[in-house]
């Protein structure tokens, strides 16, 4: 039903949205967060980009996922490995925040912290805040994760390739409204224990071979409750105060990547959370108008862990070379990654969903030795070019990739610190990424490194970071 109403027919107070009100609302929007997201299948190097931007951040946040992510950050020659903690925790002047969209395995959290303490991480617990609405991952979730993978392999001849960290089962408990949150753990422990026992029984009924020490886990959880109590805050109020108090630089560290998103990824070979920009709002409890810059992190070629369609995959000497030179194996599981050419159809699709304001290109130097470099620019299906990224995996398996071949640069780019330091062929390759896909006009390109350009410079730029100081793994090593 539609219609119009004359202005003099409007009821009192319904005079429409006035300009003054809009101006007032704009003035009270508050600070905006800078978001770093993966634009492919993970492992793009988000950790390195976050590391660069976190040096002058006040708050670094995680909004989704769990300890299925793996971030390697090198500072002063020391490698720190993070899975659940925001990698910005190494910034002693910043607060790290685990939002409500994250699922938290408390034994894993403290094990991770203790390992990094031995490498030099200090006073992390004084800089970490955990949302009281974050759901918990239990040991039986992890056991079930493994059992489900075994079942899939037996029934279907293939599995999803999860990290067996219990992420999927924990999000399943959350969606079934049976999950337990941090606030439940810190409230009435007898009530928490009753719900925990019930949840464990539910899983045991579904998986008769599941063995779990319920009372032993409860005893450990009671100890963890007291350890995390000083870190727990109302996450919504914390973020609101951060956004609307004195101006702060807030960085959101996305885990996983666009093609692993539960809704928009290559389903079912995805992770169990929204790792696109919408997950920032739901995973932190902030409105869309507080989203500022959105960095899409792109590896200069494409990699994928586990099974699933991969249109530009190179099962040949090119794939072997990329895997070897790029040190393409995961921090979380050590699994080797499949490798292929850069796929601009994926980039365009990820941009449609996330609205990237800039691209951060990583590991360009891995291509330094190639005589020529190919870029996947379009897909054909049954001989006809298609303008979209197929949702169905069987269809995606059948697409024919159209490539553009560009000359290689045969020059070492690891020492590049300015755009002008890159050879013309490498510059052309980078421009091709944004211009053909209309993602970003490269008006002000830059090359960044921890010891290079200032991370506080204007953000609307494409960024190239090399990998020479992050061997064996310079990237965010996400696996499902």
Automatic annotation (TrEMBL):
It is found in: Cytoplasm. Residues 1-25, 443-480 are annotated as: Disordered. Residues 464-480 have a biased composition (Polar residues). IMP binds at residues 43-46, 68-71, 163, 177, 256, 271, 335. Residues 443-457 have a biased composition (Basic and acidic residues). InterPro entries: Adenylosuccin_syn_GTP-bd, Adenylosuccin_syn_Lys_AS, Adenylosuccinate_synth_dom1, Adenylosuccinate_synth_dom2, Adenylosuccinate_synth_dom3, Adenylosuccinate_synthetase, AdSS_1_vert, P-loop_NTPase. It is an enzyme of class 6 (ligase). GTP binds at residues 42-48, 70-72, 337, 363-365. Binds 1 Mg(2+) ion per subunit. Substrate binds at residues 43, 331-337. The active site is at 43 (proton acceptor), 71 (proton donor), 174. GO terms for molecular function: adenylosuccinate synthase activity; GTP binding; magnesium ion binding. One of its GO terms (biological process) is 'de novo' AMP biosynthetic process. GO terms for cellular component: cytoplasm. Keywords: Cytoplasm, GTP-binding, Ligase, Magnesium, Metal-binding, Nucleotide-binding, Purine biosynthesis. It catalyses: IMP + L-aspartate + GTP = N(6)-(1,2-dicarboxyethyl)-AMP + GDP + phosphate + 2 H(+). Its cofactor is Mg(2+). Its EC number is 6.3.4.4. Mg(2+) binds at residues 43, 70. Pathway: Purine metabolism; AMP biosynthesis via de novo pathway; AMP from IMP: step 1/2. NCBIfam families: PRK01117.1, purA. Belongs to the adenylosuccinate synthetase family. Plays an important role in the de novo pathway of purine nucleotide biosynthesis. Component of the purine nucleotide cycle (PNC), which interconverts IMP and AMP to regulate the nucleotide levels in various tissues, and which contributes to glycolysis and ammoniagenesis. Catalyzes the first commited step in the biosynthesis of AMP from IMP. Homodimer. This is Adenylosuccinate synthetase isozyme 1. It comes from Sus scrofa (Pig). The lineage of its organism: Eukaryota, Metazoa, Chordata, Craniata, Vertebrata. The gene is ADSS1.
């Amino acid at each position: 039903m539609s219609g119009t109403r004359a202005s003099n027919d409007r009821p009192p107070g319904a005079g429409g949205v006035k300009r003054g009100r809009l101006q007032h609302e704009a003035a009270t929007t508050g600070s905006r967060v800078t978001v770093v997201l993966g634009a492919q299948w993970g492992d793009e190097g988000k950790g390195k980009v976050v590391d660069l931007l976190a040096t002058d951040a006040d708050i670094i946040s995680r909004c989704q996922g769990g300890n299925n992510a793996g971030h390697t950050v090198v500072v002063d020659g020391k490698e720190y490995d993070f899975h659940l903690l925001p990698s910005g925790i190494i910034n002693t002047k910043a607060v790290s925040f685990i939002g409500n969209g994250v699922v938290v395995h408390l034994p894993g959290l403290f094990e991770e912290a203790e390992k990094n303490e031995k490498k030099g991480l200090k006073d992390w617990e004084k800089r970490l805040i955990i949302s009281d609405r974050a759901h918990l991952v239990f040991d039986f979730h992890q056991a079930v994760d493994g059992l489900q993978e075994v079942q899939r392999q037996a029934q279907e001849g293939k599995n999803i390739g999860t990290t067996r960290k219990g992420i999927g089962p924990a999000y399943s408990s959350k969606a079934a409204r049976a999950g337990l949150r941090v606030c439940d753990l810190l409230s009435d422990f007898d009530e928490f224990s009753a719900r925990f026992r019930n949840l464990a029984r539910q899983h045991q009924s579904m998986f008769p071979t599941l063995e779990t020490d319920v009372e032993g886990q409860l005893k450990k959880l009671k100890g963890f409750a007291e350890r995390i109590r000083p870190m727990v805050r109302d996450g919504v109020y914390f973020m609101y105060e951060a956004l609307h108090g004195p101006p702060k630089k807030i960085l959101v560290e996305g885990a996983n990547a666009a093609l692993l998103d539960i809704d928009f990824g290559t389903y079912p070979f995805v992770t169990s959370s929204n790792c696109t920009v919408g997950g920032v709002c739901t995973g932190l409890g902030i409105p869309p108008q507080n989203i500022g810059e959105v960095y899409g992190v792109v590896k200069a070629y494409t990699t994928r862990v586990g099974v699933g369609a991969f249109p530009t995959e190179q099962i040949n000497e090119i794939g072997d070379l990329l895997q070897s030179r790029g040190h393409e194996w995961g921090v979380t599981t050590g699994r080797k990654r499949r490798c292929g050419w850069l796929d601009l159809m994926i980039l365009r699709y990820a941009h449609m969903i996330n609205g990237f304001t800039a691209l951060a290109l990583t590991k360009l130097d891995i291509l330094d030795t190639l005589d020529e470099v190919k870029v996947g620019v379009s897909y054909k299906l049954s001989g006809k070019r298609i303008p979209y990224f197929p949702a169905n995996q069987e269809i995606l398996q059948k697409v024919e990739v159209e490539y553009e071949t560009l000359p290689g640069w045969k020059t070492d780019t690891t020492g590049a610190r300015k755009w002008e330091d890159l050879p013309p062929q490498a510059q052309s390759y980078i421009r091709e990424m944004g211009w053909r896909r209309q993602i970003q006009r490269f008006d002000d390109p830059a090359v960044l490194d921890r010891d290079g350009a200032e991370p506080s410079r204007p953000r609307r730029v494409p960024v190239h970071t090399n990998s020479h100081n992050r061997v064996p793994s310079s990237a965010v090593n996400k696996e499902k």
